[in-house]
Amino acid sequence: MIPGRLPAPIQVRARFISCVVAVTAVFSILGLRLVYLQVLEGGRYRYLSENNRVRVERLLAPRGMLLDRRGEILADVRASFAALVIPAELSAEDRPRVYDELTATLGLDRETLAETVEGPGPPRWKPRIVKRDLARPEMARLEAHRLELPGVVVQATPVRHYPFGTVLGSVLGYVGEISGDELRSPAYAEYEAGDALGRAGLEWAWEGELRGEAGGQQVEVDVRGRKLSVLAERPARPGRSVVLTLDRRLQEVAEGALGEEVGAVVAVGVRTGDILAMVSRPSFDPNVLARGVTQEEWSALSSDPRHPLQNRAIQGMYPPGSTFKIVTALAGLAEGVITPQTKVFCPGAYQFAGRAYRCWKKIGHGWVDLHDAIVQSCDVYFYQLGLDVGVDAIHRHALDLGLGLATGLDLPAEKGGLIPSRDWKQRVRKEPWYAGETLSVAIGQGYVLATPLQLAFMAAAVAHPEGVRMRPRLVSRIEDPEGNPLQDIPPREAGSLGFRRSYLDAIRAGLRGVVADPRGTAHKAEVEGFPVAGKTGTAQVVKLPSETSLPEDQIPWEHRDHALFVCYAPADAPEIAVAVVVEHGGHGGSTAGPVARAVIDAYRRLNEESSTVGGLER
Fold it and tell me: For a tag site, which of 87, 146, 377, 478 has the least CB within 10 Å?
């Protein structure tokens, strides 16, 4: 035996043990790796394996159309393409290169892109939209570099389209992408990240009918994500179409007549309550919001001092001025305080509690009865009448005419206006009512506030042959995507006014005189062959004792009076009622009257063109 060497049998045994240990270690490592891959990471690799062959793609449903009463399309969808990233298909090694390409091609901010792809959101195997509405060159470059961009998908997506831009923007509203907070709410359980939903106007109010139902495809793809074939498909179901009572052509006339003025126009059907036109200026282009706006664009819109996102027709609350004299007159007749023959002397001012309440006509109107008081809009007559009737009676009859409460129109955030009473002031302001305040209320000033929509329906109620107040109707029918009717929404009455016919006839005669009588305040509103009845209004915005002697064009715009006009036509068989409010427009007869005249004249012409289908007011 050689010194220092183990005996041969021991050496063999040692080598055997070493081999066993080595083999055991190797198989242990392999076993542990198999456990890790199959048990701990099995789900991930199973998904990756399947995804090399099958991918599930969601098919977004085209949103239902919004149509005007003639069937013209006011909102539909257009073809568009979006860039999406599937985080689970994007490895850590590929991520920097893919991000570089996407930021260069799509002009995206790298940090925002990384947050979209890697941040909290839907499961990593679901695609996340990184840019909507790709331009043709962007789409072409992504398709050309598809093999170098794992996890990147270009997908067709329907985008809301409003063919007439700003026309009806405040009524139709707009759509926007669902937020993370909304996705976590049970109310939006059927939505997924990237879905669009109505954010305002009719898009919001009729979301359930318009949104449709998404479909899906199982597609076979290769390891590079290229689509090879469609294995299964469930088509998307388009949303239903909503047919409106609005007339797009009348709407355009109303917007054109209002021009660059700030204000609102509402035209309604006297017998049906149909909203024929609803203008709010300035407006906005819902196409800009539908494609997605930057933070800068949204800030510019939301901070604009002219508030283009506000629908002034239902959210603007204005002192109705002398248009409110219709209410005061009816209250006086209903309470037995006056008859149509009751006369009041107007010297140009009304003296009360040591103060002179001036009439708009400084030299006064002399002796006037109810008819003359309406025709010439005599303030002194209505000061006296308001005191005799009292604020609480005015309050009651104003509510009968639809003022002071939201009409219930199916648009969000409608305001209800304000008709004060003794109880209201005590409850809200903790103060008693003073008789002098009734003088302001009687001519539509002070605490009184109304929306243009309410004023239009007040005029329509007075004009209605049976003295009935109708409920506003903006949607007349729901149709399936093929145009088949699914649901009709008929006109509805809100109730009878409760005034004697003789009282209403007296008011109607006065309103006709406002336009037809040479002494009336609204000559510019007359339409040849289509007699108009109406009431002008000039509502003071701020008291300007130091500027009242200045010419109107020298008074700051924001300090000028609002101009109002409410009317209906034809006076002998009313069909349409119109309310116009021009913010800081001065006098109702000279500023708001011509706007109403243009709307009524257009209605007459369109009615003649549409006589085969019964005209606008059906």
Answer: 146
